[in-house]
């Protein structure tokens, strides 16, 4: 839906709420007090009972392309909540409210208004918990964190759940980095900010390109930064994450990925490994070793690479693409494969509109 359509819908829902408000307050008062005493509940009290239970629909993790899907999830959550309360001997007031036809219709309109007031947060794909904060870089001064909703307390950084849902940018994009900056131990306030795209490109070039000892990686970074400069809308392009660390900020180094792209639009999370045999499968002192010893070391190297792939997939849902010696003979083609993961497609907002039309036509 367009912003104007959403605004019009909210106005209509405001009007519908006001039309039946007085009668609903009378009915709610009777349910709450068990009798009508003449003192009618306030609208704030009534809305407090409804609004406090928005997370029946798991707004933190859920994706709801239509209000109907949100309403269904909300009722399911209420049902499960009521079951738990009845085990303790009492039915919650909100369940009694939903059983009343007049009040149930009011609650549905109230929640629909809430849905459209938070439309983008409701329809957007929510990130895995493990990806709400990621750390990348090799070690020491080149270590940086990308948080979706960075907040700090006594020097410790964390995400605010509500701010994750309501972020104005698209997750893990260039616009994300420009909006939040990068968390680091290298500045006084613990974060490095970028005034514009040129500053971010310069930072990526100086900090990450120069830190790499691989000529292949440097070429990939050069091509990525050129791709950004030539883009009509660079803020929507996924940020190219160098040296994504499996254990985050932990000093112990287990695994790193050469490059990672988290594409929220297509929900594709892909890591790229520059893996010539000279650096990943080479063996030393072959002349002085038995065939069994050589095979054992090759087997250990293979096991380590497979454990790395499995670990990233299981924890972060990241799949790995490896560029081997034969691939690296054509670095342009390697970048073309990486570039396909940078392609921006619209989020499912059009699908949400399509679903809404289908439901209305039933």
List the helices and strands and how they pair.
Layout: H1 3-19, H2 21-33, H3 43-51, H4 67-87, H5 93-99, H6 101-117, H7 119-123, E1 133-136, E2 144-147, E3 150-153, E4 156-159, H8 161-165, H9 174-180, E5 182-183, E6 191-192, H10 197-211, H11 215-229, E7 241-245, E8 256-263, E9 268-274, H12 277-280, H13 291-316, E10 319-323, H14 325-328, H15 331-340, H16 349-361
Parallel strand pairs: 9-10
Antiparallel strand pairs: 1-2, 3-4, 5-6, 7-8, 8-9
Helix pairs in contact: 1-6, 10-11, 11-15
Q: Could you explain the architecture of this structure?
A:
Helices cover 52% and strands 12% of the residues. By secondary structure, the protein is an alpha+beta fold. A hairpin with a 7-residue loop joins strand 1 and strand 2. Helix 10 packs antiparallel against helix 11 and helix 11 packs across helix 15. About 2% of the residues have low confidence.
How does the overall form come out from the CA principal axes? elongated
Strand order of the largest sheet: 7-8-9-10
Please state the CA-atom Rg, rounded to the nearest Å. 27 Å
Say how many strands there are: 10
Number of helical segments with 4 or more residues: 16
End-to-end C-alpha gap: 19 Å
Q: Indicate the mean pLDDT.
A: 86
Please outline the major beta sheet. Answer: 4 strands, mixed
Strand proportion: 5-15%
List unreliable stretches of 5+ residues. Answer: 346-353
Element-by-element helix/strand order: HHHHHHHEEEEHHEEHHEEEHHEHHH
Estimated helix fraction: 40-55%
Category from helices, strands and their pairing: alpha+beta
